[in-house]
Amino acid sequence: MATGEAVTISYNFREAYLEITVDLLVSVLDSLSLPEAKFLTGWSHGKEALKDGSYDTYKGSFYVNCGEFGHASVNSQNSDVAYSAYPEVTASNVWPPEEMLPGFRQCFEELCNLIIDIAASVARACDRYALAKIPGYESGYLEKVIRTSSTTKARLLHYFPPHADDHVKQSVLEGEPRESSEELLDSWCATHIDHGCLTGLTSAVYIDESSHEPRLSSSQGSPLPLPHLPFLPNAPDPRSGLYIRSRLGDITRILIPSDCLAFQTGESLQLITGGKFRAVPHFVQAGKALGDTARVARNTLAVFTQPGLDEVVDRETGKTFAQFSMEVAERFG
Asked: How wide is the angle at C-alpha 197 spanned by C-alphas 196 and 199, nearest 5°?
């Protein structure tokens, strides 16, 4: 079974990013951080622990709980239990001031709702396959999960420009064989699998921050609307971007057209289907630093469709998504 699927749609993601790609003052970003939600709602930077014990400062994230939206497909509350013990999915969303980013919240919610709707259509195809291959599989199960769960999470990602003096991370771009250098390849985001069901991904947007320094000031001391940031037509370094590792161990660079979404399978779906669908290991490679002037950043949006907390994801053990989520949290410390 294929591990990913692309969907061509008419929604202009690049125009949407004119509204939702953001570079704000540190003081504003700090006000959007929620330690009580384990930094999994609102702004998060330098909070994610890596395998070597250091903290990830290569990217910043803006998390949103999609179950809070008024869209029918994501606002249908199921029988999730013990919500108070999971602040990462129960915390109220926080948003930048409307006068600073006019339309940001509306655009973000509309885009997430669209991705969730399309994810439900992809899930319908997955359900047909699972029904034919898995004894006792509940007809329409994955589509139901995606349409009714209140735990779906969106993550707007900003990958900071690589530094020219980052020799270790850049060395793979000088000709080292990829099959022996995956640890070096994942310089923007380490190799991992998602723990939800289906992850919807937009096309990446690249911006040269050196050509447009964001400024946020006014003579009255109140925030001004941020100007739009011009996009680069593609990644300046053709080896940067998203990569996946197949079941056979092959590493493939994934290019998502600007008018398409891609979907990849996560660990919950692997459990639910007894391995008929497999979670896709993936990572993000930073481009080579382009001299002393250009500072190229990468931006994208991921929407993680997840089961409700009391949904059983392992039929053999009766393990719920809540229990599985706790295992994942312990796994990554």
From this structure: 80
One DSSP character per residue, 108-140 reads HHHHHHHHHHHHHHHHHHHHHHHHHHSTTPPTT
Q: State pTM to two decimals.
A: 0.83
User: Which residue has tokens 């990830």?
Assistant: 56
C-alpha 164: how far from chain center: 26
Q: What is the C-alpha separation between 240 and 161, in angstroms, rounded?
A: 12
CB contact at 8 A, 244 and 285: no
pLDDT digits (tens, 9 = 90+) for 34-68: 888 888 899 998 777 665 666 777 888 999 999 88
The letter for the amino acid at 198 is L
Closest CA to 256 of 289, 302, 189, 197: 302
Alpha-carbon span 170 to 288, nearest angstrom: 6
Task: Say if residues 320 and 309 touch (Cβ distance below 8 Å).
Answer: yes
Q: Which residues pair with 296 in a beta bridge?
A: 208
Q: Which residues contact 232 (CB under 8 A, 6 or more apart)?
A: 206, 207, 208, 296
Phi/psi at 32 (nearest 5 deg)? Answer: -100, 5
- In this predicted structure, what is the pLDDT of residue 11? 46
C-alpha–C-alpha distance, residues 319 and 313, integer Å: 6
